[in-house]
Amino acid sequence: MRSHRRPRLLAPFLLVPLMAGCFASGGGDDSASGDGNGGDGARLRVALAFPPAENLSPYGADATLLSRLGVTEGLTSLDANGSAAPALAESWRRDGDRTWEFSLRDATFQDGGEVTPAAVAASLTHATDAEPAPAALAGVTLSAEAGGDRVVRITTAEPDPVLPLRLSSPSLAILSKGAYGKSDRVDPVGHATGPFELTEVNGATSAALDRFDDYWGGRAQASGIDARFIADGTARANALRTGELDIAEAVPVAQAASLDEKTRRDTATTRTTSLLLNASSGPFKDAGLRAAARGALDTSVFAKDVYEGYGDPGAGVYGPAVTWAEGKRTPPVGRAAAKKPGGDTIDLATYDNRPELPEVAQVVKQQLEKAGFTVKLTVREYSRLEGDALDGKFDAFVLARNTLLDTGDPVAVLASDYTCDGGFNIAQLCDKGVDRAVADAEQIADTAKRQDAAMAAEARILGSDAVVPLVHQRIITGVADSVQGVVLDPYERALVGTGTRR
Fold first, then answer.
1. Pairing of β 374-380 and β 345-351
2. 162, 191, 269, 352: which has the fewest C-beta neighbours closer than 10 Å?
3. Positive or negative: CA dihedral 316, 318, 319, 323
4. 471 and 306 Cβ atoms separated by less than 8 Å
5. pLDDT of residue 26
């Protein structure tokens, strides 16, 4: 197992403002024209669920905070079908097996500099040199160089058929030279390209953003954003209800009924909540006991009861928001026969940043105990237990994971989460058959065939019983009556776009 693990908050965040036209909006027109209402437009008051964990570094979990607030963007984005779409690059083409050429649009950095091929190449080079590496670059070595007046050439050490998808990752956002000082810290304040520019960051409490009037995609309709980081879901819902907020992300299911129906938006996401079983040490090293744990769980109760209908029963690694998956899913391969629990105590853990997860874990605990396991439950804030989880110190872990967040490529999450060298392998799974199936899928360029291979790998992963999908989450966004154009993104990369206004 890989010894260096990168801290990554599995937050509910997501993409760039360009995507405003690709996903459902929270009411009204989501035009990219910023002057539709005349005047400067009111500032938006937005609450995000997860505070900055890495000083707003673009290379880790905070990257999605920046993209959700419309600060950063990459060469590409994701469209509603999960395909690569233009962002700072207008188009691209493959030149041989290992090189791609990306043609840039005319765009300006928030510090006034032009988005040139040299600037883009330098920004991507900084990302490749980052320690730890961005999740989107896991297992990938690339180099970037200016290839002409408006062209960036990107070459990978090995053929990478999904490079345009990979470059949509929020962690590969393009920043100007000024973002990279003498210290190791990367400063996105005033150095990005999105429609909103960070002007003030107050630690893990709040941030202020002003509209970037020279944004290539059109002048945003809101004059700025006042963002607050409110970890408590009840507090977010209360602030929306009392008129202190215009937008509250990730409203807890328990608070949904307290909001007026017109202020609730629920969106199927690519996030799956699963029970991960430690396949390398402890009781669940025994595949028969993993099979017993899987058989003990009645997963139908999670969507119906814990998520109160704001979810779909767990079917696999990918849920209904990954629209192609259901028609391609095949039965699990290689499942062991269940064994009777022998009285071992199971250390089960989860985190409370997502209010539903402790309740999910309590239900899991009850069902496992009913089957004969003894279960000890640990609940902490995510950043305080991620390291232990990645080091395999828990026997079982309840995790909410966005399966397409890092790259948009369905194979990438399988490689990072379920292979021997995976950088986010909380399940500690190391299975030659799984590794071989994932490696085969990684080599396929054709979209449909790559999806087929991903599902074949999923069948082997589910057959190991190292992961038990519990529920596919629908995210609830609170939107005040006066607000239009909120971006409801199933990939959780975008929230505020150029057409978001009140």
1. parallel
2. 352
3. negative
4. yes
5. 57
Report whether pLDDT(22) > 90.
no
Is the backbone peptide bond immediately before 132 cis, with ω within 30 degrees of 0?
yes
Encoding tokens for residue 246?
Answer: 């215009």
Cα 302 from Cα 315, distance rounded (Å): 12
CB 427 within 8 A of CB 280: no
The two three-digit tokens of residue 74, written as one number: 């990459």
Question: Cα–Cα distance between 270 and 339 in angstroms, integer?
Answer: 33
Rounded CA gap, 270 and 273, in Å? 10
Q: How far apart are CA 158 and CA 98, in angstroms?
A: 6
C-alpha 275, offset from chain centre:
18
On whether the CB atoms of residues 174 and 193 are closer than 8 A, the answer is yes
The structure tokens listed for 456 are 């074949």
3-state SS, residue 229: strand
Q: Residue 366: CA atoms inside 13 Å, Cβ hemisphere, count?
A: 10
**What was the pLDDT predicted at 383?**
82
The DSSP element (H or E) to which 255 belongs, if any, is: helix 253-256
Q: Quote the pLDDT of residue 32.
A: 40
pLDDT of residue 336: 97
Alpha-carbon gap, residue 269 to 238, rounded angstroms? 24
Q: Helix (H, G, I), strand (E, B), or coil: what is residue 463?
A: helix
* Tokens found for residue 97: 């097996």
Q: Where are the alpha helices (DSSP H) in 39-172?
A: 62-68, 117-129, 163-166
Identify whether the C-beta of residue 189 lies closer than 8 Å to the C-beta of residue 201: yes
Please state the pTM of the whole predicted model: 0.79
Q: Are 275 and 467 in contact (CB under 8 A)?
A: yes
**Nearest Cα to 13, choosing from 496, 493, 486?**
493
